[in-house]
Amino acid sequence: MKIAGFDIGGANTDLAVVEFDDNGSIINIRTDFSYLPMWNKKDELSQTLLDLLGKDMDEIDAVGISMTAELADSYQSKAEGVLDISARVMETFNIPVAFVGLNGMKDYESVQKNPQELAAANWIATATLAAHMAPDCIFIDTGSTTTDIIPIKNGTECAKGRTDLERLGTGELVYTGTLRTNVATLVDKVPLKDKWLRTASELFAVTADVHLVLGNITLEDYTSETPDGGDISLENSFLRLSRLLCGDMNLLSKDDVEKIAWFIYQKQVAQVAEALKEVSVREHIELVIATGLGMNIIGSEAAKFLGLEIRTMEEILSKEDCVVAPAVGTALLMEKFQKS
Amino acid sequence: MKIAGFDIGGANTDLAVVEFDDNGSIINIRTDFSYLPMWNKKDELSQTLLDLLGKDMDEIDAVGISMTAELADSYQSKAEGVLDISARVMETFNIPVAFVGLNGMKDYESVQKNPQELAAANWIATATLAAHMAPDCIFIDTGSTTTDIIPIKNGTECAKGRTDLERLGTGELVYTGTLRTNVATLVDKVPLKDKWLRTASELFAVTADVHLVLGNITLEDYTSETPDGGDISLENSFLRLSRLLCGDMNLLSKDDVEKIAWFIYQKQVAQVAEALKEVSVREHIELVIATGLGMNIIGSEAAKFLGLEIRTMEEILSKEDCVVAPAVGTALLMEKFQKS
Fold it and tell me: B9: closest CA among B63, B69, B49?
C-alpha cells in the first residue's frame, strides 16, 4: 500500500509518500515540500498538492491530510479556514481521503459537521512517530515558524491543551521557529560593544538570517521568503540583521553582527527552554525527542540548557524526512485508518 | 514668504506650507500627508510631493526637506538612500531647496559630499519648535512608527546620540509608534482570564488596532495599511488582535480582547517611559513637551508614569499640525536659511 500524507501549513505544504508492506511495515519514504503562503495564494493549493505528488498520483491508494493553514489571516475564523481547505483537498482527489483531527482521523462528512476538530492538529501526527521511538517522552518539533512541545506517556500523547489558543497557555506551543520568526519579536535590546541598544520593531530580519550567519543552517535550508525581498545570501543576511539597529554594513562590522546574532539565538533557545521546562516539570518526563529543521539547534539546545536527556528523530528518519515529520506521521495514521 | 517643509519618512510623507510676514512671524500653516511606503514605491516620491503641494506649487518661494526614509530596506545603505531621495527632490523643483542635517541646513552640493549628515535628522526640525515653547525641556514626538525623545537646554537640542544607531542606545529613539508597530514586538505573553498565554510572532496586529479598540484613536487616524489587508473597522481590529493568541472572535470575547489591548498599551507606555527616564535622569530635565499622533496617549502617559511635568505642542499648533511637527519645523528652518 502507498499512502500520501500532506501537512498543509500557513507557509509550507509538506508531503510524505510512504510505502508499506502487507504487514504494515514501512518499505520506503519520499518527502518533499513547497513554499505556499496560504494568506495570499490559497487558490494554488490544489495544483501544489498535485505538483508535489507528481507521478506518485497514479500509484497512491489514499491521502491523509493534517493542517495548520486555517490560522492564516485570509480567513475570518478557523472553522472557515478548515472548511475551505478541506473542500479544496476533496476536489483534488478521487481516492479515499481523511483528515487528522484532535481525536483521531476524520472523514470529510465529520469535518463538515465539526471543523474545529481539525484546527492545528498536525502535532497529533508527529506524536505517533515520537511514541514509536519512546513510550514516555516529550517531543519537540521546531519548524520554520513554530515549535510544538508535546508530552507522551504510555505511548499516547497527553497534551494539556488541545487548540493552539490553549497550547499557547500550557507551554505546548511556542510561536518561534528556525526561519520565519521576526527577530524583533525575540529581542527588545541587543548588546553592541559596551552598550545595550534598543531594536527596530519592523520586519527587517528573520531567524533564518540569524541561523545562516551563525552557520546553524545552510543556504539550501533558507526556503522562506526574505523580509526585504532580497536574494538569499550570507551577505544579505548580515545586511538585514544590521537594520535591526537602524544600521547598515558601513556602520557595523561582521563581528558586531555575528555577536548580535548569537545573542538572539540564545534568547530564542531560552524562550523554548522556558516552555519545555513548564511541560517537563508538570509531566515528570525527562527524555526529549527533537525533530524539525531546528532539532539539532533550537530543540536540542533548549533540552541541554535544562539538563534533560536528548534524542532526535534522525534515529528513525533521514534528516530531510525529520523536517516534514507531521506529514510522515499523517501518512502512518492514514494507513491505519484505511485498514480499520 | 511662503515655504514648503517636507518630512519624507519610510511610510508617510508629510507637508507643511508655512506663510511668514516680513518680520518672520507665522501668518498661516497648512499641513497634509500622504501614505507612501518608500520600500516599494519610491518611484512615486516626486509625484507625491507635487500632489501634496497642489496649487501652492506656484506660490512657494523655497522648499525644505527632512527625511528618515533612507532607512527603508529597499536601500543597501543610508548613504545610498539619502543620495537617491535628495536627487528625486532636486529633479522635482526649480526653486531653492535645502535639507535638514544633523548640524543645520545643507544645500544639495553639501549633501552629495556628505550624505550621512542627513540620515534620520528630522528630529532636529522638531527640536526647533520645542525650543520655541520652552528653552529647557525634553520633547517627545510619538509618530506612526517611532518615538523621538530629545533633550533641549538653553534653547538648543543636546541629544547625546546623533545617528539612529546611536540614539537607540541613548534612550533618544524608541522604535515604537501609534499605528504601525507589530504588537508581537511589544509582548511575549498576555493575560487571558486567569492565565498567561504566549503570543504568535507573526504580523497579525499593529498598535493602530490596539489604540482603535481602546478608543485612543479614531477610524480617521488609522492611516496606515492593515496587516491582513482587511478594511479599517473596529470589528476587524478585534479580529486581528484575537489572532495574536491564534484565536478568532468565536474563541475570544470582545471583553477578552479589550483587556489584552489595554495590557499591550501599558507595555508600550512602559517601554517609552523607560527611555524617557534614561534621558530625564541623565539631563536633569523634568519638563516634557509631547507632540505627534500619540502625544496625548503614549507620550503623555509615559511622562505621567514618571511624575514629570507634561505640556503638548497643541499650545502652539493645531492637533493636525502636531502630527506633522517635523515638517512644520523644517519649513521654519528653511525660512531662516533663505534669509541667511
Answer: B69
User: What long-range pairs does A250-253 form, CB within 8 A, spacing at least 24?
Assistant: A250/B77, A250/B78, A250/B79, A251/B78, A251/B163, A251/B165, A252/A192, A252/B165
Q: What is the pLDDT of residues B77-105, one digit of tens each?
A: 889 999 999 999 999 999 999 999 998 99
Q: What spatial distance separates the first Cα and last Cα of chain B, rounded to whole Å?
A: 14
Which of B339, B334, B293 minimizes the C-alpha distance to B17?
A: B334
Chain segment A84-109, per-residue pLDDT in tens:
999 999 999 999 999 999 989 999 99
Spans in chain B with pLDDT lower than 50: none
SS3 content of chain A, % helix, strand, coil (to 5): 45, 20, 35
Cβ neighbours, 10 Å, residue A229: 10
How is B34-75 classified by DSSP, letter by letter? EE--HHHHGGGHHHHHHHHHGGGGGT-SEEEEEE-GGGSTTS
- Mean predicted confidence (pLDDT) in A244-256: 95
Confidence bin at A118 (pLDDT 50/70/90): confident
Please give, rounded to a whole number of angstroms, the shortest distance from the CA of B198 to a CA of chain A. Answer: 5
CB contacts, 8 Å: A253 with chain B: none
pLDDT at site B71: 83
What ranges in chain A are assigned the alpha helix state H?
Answer: 38-41, 45-53, 78-92, 108-113, 122-133, 164-170, 207-213, 234-243, 254-283, 300-305, 319-323, 325-339
A147-194 pLDDT, tens digit each: 999 999 999 999 999 899 999 999 999 999 999 999 999 999 999 998
C-alpha cell at B123: 528630529
Q: State the cell numbers at A237.
A: 543576511
DSSP string, B168-220: HHHTSEE---SSS-BGGGT-SEEEETTEEEE---SS--BHHHHHHHTTSS-GG
Residue A119's closest CA among A103, A131, A107, A130?
A103
CA atoms of B103 and B109, how far apart (whole Å)? 15
Partner B contacted by A76 (CB < 8 A):
yes
Which burial class, exposed, middle or buried, applies to B277 when counting CB atoms under 10 A from its CB (0-12, 13-18, 19+)?
Answer: middle
Is A175–B201 a contact, with Cβ atoms under 8 angstroms apart? yes
B169 to chain A, minimum CA–CA distance in Å? 4
